What we know:
Blueprint: H1 5-29, H2 33-58, H3 71-80, H4 82-85, H5 89-97, H6 103-131, H7 138-187, H8 192-202, H9 208-223, H10 227-238, H11 241-256, H12 260-284, H13 286-316
Amino acid sequence: xxxxxxxxxxxxxxxxxxxxxxxxxxxxxxxxxxxxxxxxxxxxxxxxxxxxxxxxxxxxxxxxxxxxxxxxxxxxxxxxxxxxxxxxxxxxxxxxxxxxxxxxxxxxxxxxxxxxxxxxxxxxxxxxxxxxxxxxxxxxxxxxxxxxxxxxxxxxxxxxxxxxxxxxxxxxxxxxxxxxxxxxxxxxxxxxxxxxxxxxxxxxxxxxxxxxxxxxxxxxxxxxxxxxxxxxxxxxxxxxxxxxxxxxxxxxxxxxxxxxxxxxxxxxxxxxxxxxxxxxxxxxxxxxxxxxxxxxxxxxxxxxxxxxxxxxxxxxxxx
Length: 319
């Protein structure tokens, strides 16, 4: 089947038009994630208020942020005691830093740490021993099944690590701007609570996770006995050194009465300088990274464009 140039051009134009429509329509169909996150923070604020009220009634020292897990997951985790041999404090911290809070997220993570290796093991076992063995010896098939089970063990951890890294990148990029806005609000006469509330709304355009964290910190400052706990929870949930430095400055200002604006000004300048240094480092690393793609993809096309007319002329010349 031969295709003429008009048919190929029409097909390419249709593909380009469809890609353009898709690119324009995706932001409109995506919805407003900021409003959803802020509504979730409002719900979390009400939960904090209810927990603080219960704590005051029961005489506890400190409230904990918990969510009621699903009944089936809770039953499976408690029946097999997965939290004793699959749950660690490091995994709990990573869940919080990845944006998954409460016992529901913890129980789901423990369940998948148990179910994923079993599922990988059974699927690979059925495929290699019943469906298609690919003419492999039995020992090799057993080794592949064990490797699949090991990958199943690591899959939840890899997913959690990737979610944490992606979230921290969003927080790190928007943190200098959030500090600048906080500094402006504080120096204009606002309290730190009002400043965080205002910044959480404004910074949502750049980073929805940061807006969520600041709004949750503002809620904790309103309902916890000591605001130091709210600052420390912010540092723990983000896991960033820049946030830890600001938290330390805020705690010292709260304890000794030192001015907050001066400390925020210095830390904001350091955050901007660090972001600029990281951008320059990435820009400096681009030439070595582009060498191989240019050799593999760019030079063959360039040689083809330069040599094709000469080759055509040579082939059309009568000797």
